């Protein structure tokens, strides 16, 4: 991950690790893998199933499912059940934050410039 993608800064002597319901450490672990960053970028634009993500990223459904579980447990994603499928999207509070901050996801301990992510 290049410095342009991730800017970790300490924001004071005592900082609560939670920012808008997201555990900063869990989020950093979840976003520390390139495929998960690619998934996050896709899900900012649309609500997708495992199959759709797998096709778009040319990654196996098994691996996509594992990545989605990690991201969901970190509080980055939300799911909606649609018949037999689960549709995934970025958690609404994160979408709102990124829209208000010029494509920057601020976790409280770090910021991610989503407009700098590679395809």
Descriptive account of the structure:
By secondary structure, this protein is α+β, with helices and mostly antiparallel strands. The protein has one domain (17-113): Orthogonal Bundle (Arc Repressor Mutant, subunit A). The chain has 5 helices and 7 strands. It has helices spanning 24-30, 34-45, 50-57, 61-73, 92-100, and strands at 6-8, 18-19, 22-23, 77-82, 85-90, 104-106, 110-113. It is globular.
Please name the defining characteristics of this protein.
disordered N terminus; alpha+beta; 119 residues; Arc Repressor Mutant, subunit A; globular; two-stranded antiparallel ribbon; 5 helices; three-stranded antiparallel β-sheet
Question: Mind telling me the CATH class?
Answer: Mainly Alpha
Average pLDDT figure: 79
Roughly how much helix do the residues carry, as a percent range?
40-55%
**What best-fitting shape do the alpha-carbon axes yield?**
globular
Q: In the residues, how many domains can be counted?
A: 1
**What is the N-to-C order of secondary-structure elements (H for helix, E for strand)?**
EEEHHHHEEHEE
Tally of extended strands?
Answer: 7
Strand order of the largest sheet: 1-7-6
Largest sheet: 3 strands, antiparallel
Class per helix and strand makeup: alpha+beta
Taking Cα atoms only, what radius of gyration do you get, to the nearest Å?
14 Å
Short description:
This protein is α+β, with helices and mostly antiparallel strands and 119 residues long.
